[in-house]
Design a protein that fits this description.
The complex is a heterodimer of chains A (141) and B (287). With 141 residues, chain A is an alpha/beta fold. Chain A has helices at residues 20-36, 46-51, 54-62, 75-83, 93-97, 99-102, 114-140; strands at 9-13, 41-43, 65-69, 89-92. Chain A has a four-stranded parallel sheet, sandwiched between helices. The longest helix of chain A has 27 residues, at 114-140. Chain B has 287 residues and is α+β, with helices and mostly antiparallel strands. Helices cover 36% and strands 25% of the residues of chain B. Chain B contains eleven helices and 15 strands. Chain B has helices at 16-31, 39-44, 47-55, 68-75, 86-92, 106-128, 181-187, 234-237, 241-244, 260-263, 270-284; strands at 6-9, 35-36, 58-62, 80-85, 142-147, 150-155, 160-161, 166-171, 174-179, 190-194, 201-202, 207-213, 217-221, 226-231, 253-257. In chain B, the strands form four sheets. A six-stranded antiparallel sheet of chain B has the order 7-8-9-15-14-11. A four-stranded parallel sheet of chain B has the order 2-1-3-4, with helices on both faces. In chain B, strands 10-12-13 form a three-stranded antiparallel sheet. In chain B, a hairpin with a 2-residue loop joins strand 5 and strand 6. Chain B is globular and about 55 Å long. The chains are: A alpha/beta (141), B alpha+beta (287). The A-B interface holds A 13-18, 22, 26, 29-30, 34, 42-48, 50-51, 53, 73, 75-76, 78-79, 106-110 and B 9-15, 18, 22-23, 25-27, 36-41, 43-45, 66, 68-69, 71-72, 101-104, 109.
Chain lengths: 141, 287
Amino acid sequence: MSEAREVKFGVVSCSGEECLGGTISRLATRKIMDEIQPDKTVTICLPLFLAGGQEERTFAKEFPTIAVDGCNKACARRAIEKYSGAVSAAILVSDLIGDEMAEGPALSTRDLTAEHQKMIDKTTLAISEEYDVLIKAEQVK
Amino acid sequence: MSSKYAVLPCNGLDKCAGQITKEIALAICEKTESDLICPVLYQVAESKYDTSVKENPLLVIDGCGMRCASKLAAAKNLKIQKKMTVSAEAKERGCVLPTDTLRLSEAERKLAVELAAELSKETETAKEDSGAETVYQTPNDFAVYTRDKFIFRVPTEGFYFTENDCWLQVSGNRARIGVTDYVQQSLSDIMFFTPPNLDSELEQFDEAGVIESGKAVFEVICPVSGKVVAVNAELASAPEFINQSPYEKGWIAELELTNFAEEVDFLLTTEGYMKILKKKVDDFHVK
């Protein structure tokens, strides 16, 4: 009898310096990791991944990975695809909150408003839905 | 701080220190007209930031010891004006960063504000302390050791040395310190220099700053005990002075001597250092 593999999911957020969409993607990723699926998800430091972090790249090759990008530049998804292969799912925050809003200026977490919080919740929900689909697929294997 | 900078944070997401870098970068950009450089986008779309990083002094903020932002700057051949590693700064302040959550508490936010202020303050302080008044003789005669295309110069008069390839030039009760020609040639192009803190009291053989090139990091070992009364602020914007002129324009710091009479016994003359230099060059020489 083979042992069931413990499945961890990588949730990789874009770096989020450029725009509000990036900030939202970072915070939603943190919410998934801290509150929604704290034992089942890990994140990958994208700057380290790009700088050549082998542990990060190996993880993304071996485990299902959800890319969360702030805008359609899709830096996170493209980076994973370049160094570790296809992502299992990709979320685009600009699709959820609109291009204009997503491309607004980045903000500090101390300046978060209720409206921003709703955007984070919406993105968190989208990641969570992708997670549910992926976990079911893993259970079928 | 009133200057405009290009600010490059590591912006790592998986450690608290990385979260703090973002807050520091935003705080600096809010106070100035500085440009925020996204490290990830810079990797994939270099041209977007080309103008900013070339026209403005660059501030680099690393989150942890991986120093991804510094490595990125080195890979792009950027000259760093000032940099900071948040985890090291937190440790120095006795501030323990949380490992169980990445959400920033008031303590971490306060730290971010302090570090943002410090990053700007130190830049200005370095400018103010750029000149030492004590006169130091310019070396005009050098002992030379040549190996293939490499030529290593060591001043013949007025300098002391350590086995760690640092030098000391005394003037009254003060002295300048620096690194030898051997260090600058071994490191190749020097990208960044972290000076010792002004007014700090250093013991003989304490660390007196760090020099970084694309190849390696070199800790400057202080040849004598003393109080740091000046640092060479020009190295902040032109660390290549250490390559170009290690015994003159590339001086690192000036000390007020506290125990020179006893410590001089542990220093090397030109002749003594030349023996060590030759052995190092011969042992490590790669044809």
